[in-house]
């Protein structure tokens, strides 16, 4: 069974994510078109092939220079967040990849089937070579996954899971302790990249020269930069660029300057305050799966009263915050999930979704109600958001006292319910590409990140249904019904959805603009 072309932009015909008992495969004739944009996931890519490079006949359009926001934190150990650099350089690959809608698609695994509720069998792609020259085998896959399972701390995507892996011929069998409909999605995490056995030595994992992607890491200079060259034995269409030259530039002003001067071809995360100093055609705003939300304490204090929470909800002027603090470079929140999930907005027209919101109480009249409002300084915009929210809340009768600190010094108090209200910039899609884990963590009775201290039977039931639903359209609908149940409590008032500003000099083609920040330079990326 095939999936219709997910966007006119992606030429490959891809195989649908499997249902229980069904097998997903990509035929050999489709492999070349699938990997022409490795890890592209159906995202919007710019440009086309240059005159000197075409599929199957790689030209040399020069090297791509990239300025990253953060240097490696753990010497590129894939068990850390450094894994996302490996995927953004297209040097390390996973068994499965995600498309724009969050569907699981083949990568180093050509297909899979779910044999029963807890057993999955993955077919490993043939003729894949590591950068060492060794051929990928099922044993290599098991080795990499087992290192992730045994890692301390365990990669986020595996936290709370219990699974085992074994090779069976050219297949890999993954068994989970409990039914897990999102297992293929978990295997898309860059922290579960498959590396050559030589990368693992004791507690050290060194990905240099050990991946399978179209680019090979040939040198890493600590927190200064890295060098990657095109890998000519790549299993798909070779990279069009001859290599990637990476610089780590934590200072946002310096990154913007590198874009203006052309010192970098592709630049991560241009600060909003610097965007105006760059030619508009060089910057691209990418909606992020991150929502700025006002969490209200439903357990104690004034906001234990649903009508008082409704008064706060009605006081918020999102457009004013976006215009002033974000200079218009953010999206007004209609719900907890934003435009980085393309399916979310249309499902808010569901009758059951609208019905859940109709039961919200009318706002109470407040006069001098004292509340504490907390947030943190680590994200420069949040203290400014707090100032504007204070003004908006006081305009309807609240008496607001702010408490603003560094995140490391305020998180524990926020989770303990020390504030009546708290402003948080929160990632809504975690490593699996699925937002249900975020909803469960933040809004269920047993949630481990419940700043709102919410415990509501209807919310728990709705999130429970979403958790157990198989991946696909029905899970998306169940997720949105769970969002509606949360919003109906006014425990969380979504303010805005953030965008990241990516810089690309004129002449860059095919740089991925990825809301999940998993990919950046692909095999198709090249310069005029």
Question: What does it look like?
Answer:
This protein is of the alpha+beta class and 528 residues long. It folds into two domains: 2-250 and 505-527, D-Maltodextrin-Binding Protein, domain 2 (3-Layer(aba) Sandwich); 287-499, Roll (Dipeptide-binding Protein, domain 3), CATH 3.10.105.10. The protein is 26% helix and 23% strand. The chain is built from 15 helices and 23 strands. The strands form six sheets. Strands 3, 12, 13, 14, 15, 16, 17, 18, 19, 20 and 21 form an eleven-stranded mixed β-sheet that branches. A four-stranded antiparallel β-sheet has the order 6-7-9-8, covered by helices on one side. Helix 10 (351-358) packs parallel to helix 15 (473-489) and helix 14 runs antiparallel to helix 15. It is globular. InterPro entries: SBP_5, SBP_5_dom. It comes from Leucobacter chromiisoli. This is ABC transporter substrate-binding protein.
Share of helical residues: 25-40%
Structure classification = alpha+beta
Largest sheet properties: 11 strands, mixed
Poorly predicted parts: 1-60
Distance between the termini: 38 Å
CATH topology of the largest domain: D-Maltodextrin-Binding Protein, domain 2
Radius of gyration: 24 Å
CATH class of the largest domain: Alpha Beta
Number of strands: 23
Protein name: ABC transporter substrate-binding protein
GO molecular function: peptide transmembrane transporter activity
Domain Solute-binding protein family: 106-447
């Amino acid at each position: 069974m095939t999936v219709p072309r997910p966007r006119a932009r992606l030429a490959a015909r891809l195989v649908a994510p499997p249902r229980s008992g069904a097998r997903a495969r990509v035929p050999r004739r489709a492999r070349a078109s699938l990997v022409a944009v490795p890890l592209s996931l159906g995202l919007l890519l710019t440009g086309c092939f240059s005159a000197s490079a075409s599929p199957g006949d790689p030209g040399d359009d020069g090297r791509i220079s990239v300025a990253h926001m953060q240097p490696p934190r753990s010497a590129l150990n894939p068990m850390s967040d450094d894994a996302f650099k490996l995927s953004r350089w297209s040097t390390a690959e996973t068994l499965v990849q995600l498309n724009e809608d969050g569907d699981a698609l083949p990568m180093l695994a050509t297909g899979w089937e779910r044999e029963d509720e807890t057993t999955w069998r993955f077919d490993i792609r043939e003729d894949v070579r590591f950068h060492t020259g060794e051929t990928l085998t099922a044993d290599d896959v098991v080795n990499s996954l087992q290192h992730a399972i045994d890692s301390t701390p365990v990669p986020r995507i595996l936290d709370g899971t219990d699974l085992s892996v074994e090779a069976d011929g050219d297949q890999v069998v993954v068994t989970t302790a409990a039914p897990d409909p999102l297992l293929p999605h978990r295997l898309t995490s860059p922290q579960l990249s498959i590396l050559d056995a030589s990368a693992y030595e004791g507690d050290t994992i060194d990905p240099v020269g050990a991946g399978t992607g179209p680019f090979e890491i040939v040198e890493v200079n600590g927190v200064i930069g890295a060098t990657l060259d095109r890998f000519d034995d790549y299993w798909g269409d070779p990279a069009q660029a001859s290599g990637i030259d990476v610089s780590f530039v934590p200072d946002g002003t310096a990154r913007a300057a590198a874009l203006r001067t052309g010192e970098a071809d592709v630049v991560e995360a241009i600060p909003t305050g610097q965007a105006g100093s760059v030619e508009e055609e060089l910057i691209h705003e990418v909606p992020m799966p991150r929502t700025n939300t006002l969490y209200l304490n439903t357990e104690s204090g004034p906001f234990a009263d649903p009508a008082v929470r409704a008064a706060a909800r009605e006081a918020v002027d999102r457009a004013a915050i976006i215009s002033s603090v974000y200079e218009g470079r953010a999206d007004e929140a209609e719900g907890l999930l934003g435009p980085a999930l393309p399916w979310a907005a249309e499902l808010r027209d569901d009758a059951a979704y609208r019905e859940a919101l109709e039961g919200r109480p009318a706002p109470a009249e407040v006069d001098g109600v004292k509340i504490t409002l907390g947030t943190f300084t680590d994200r420069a915009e949040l203290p400014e958001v707090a100032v504007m929210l204070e003004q908006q809340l006081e305009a309807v009768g609240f008496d607001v006292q702010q408490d603003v600190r560094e995140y490391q010094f305020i998180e524990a108090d926020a989770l303990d319910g020390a504030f009546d209200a708290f402003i948080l910039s929160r990632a809504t899609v975690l490593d699996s590409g699925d937002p249900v884990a975020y909803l469960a963590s933040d809004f269920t009775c047993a949630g481990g990140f419940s700043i709102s201290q919410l415990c509501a039977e209807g919310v728990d039931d709705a999130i429970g249904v979403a958790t157990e639903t198989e991946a696909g359209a029905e899970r998306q609908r169940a997720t949105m019904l769970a969002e509606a149940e949360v919003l109906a409590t006014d425990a969380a008032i979504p303010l805005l959805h953030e965008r990241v500003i990516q810089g690309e000099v004129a002449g860059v083609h095919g740089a991925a603009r990825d809301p999940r920040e998993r990919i950046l330079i692909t095999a198709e990326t090249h310069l005029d």
